[in-house]
Amino acid sequence: MTEPFSPAEVIALKRDKHELTQQHIDWFIDAYMRGIVAEEQMSAMSMAILLNGMNRREIVQWTNAYINSGVKMDWTNLARPTADKHSTGGVGDKITLPLAPVVAACGVSVPQLSGRGLGHTGGTLDKLESIPGWRAKLSNQEMFTVLQNCGAVICAASETLAPADRRIYALRDVTATVESIPLISASIMSKKIAEGTQSLVLDVKVGSGAFMKTVEQARELATTMVGIGNDAGVTTRALLTAMDVPLGRTAGNALEVRESLEVLADGGPRDVIELTVTLAREMLDACGAPVHADPAEVLTNGKAMDVWNAMITAQGGDIHASLPTARHSHDVLSEADGVLSSLDALSVGVAAWKLGAGRARKEDIVQAGAGVEWHVGVGDSVTRGQKLFTLHTDDEARFDAALESLAAGFSIGDSVADRLPLVIDRIV
Ligand code: URA
Question: Would residue 165 show up in a list of annotated catalytic residues for this protein?
Answer without folding.
Answer: yes
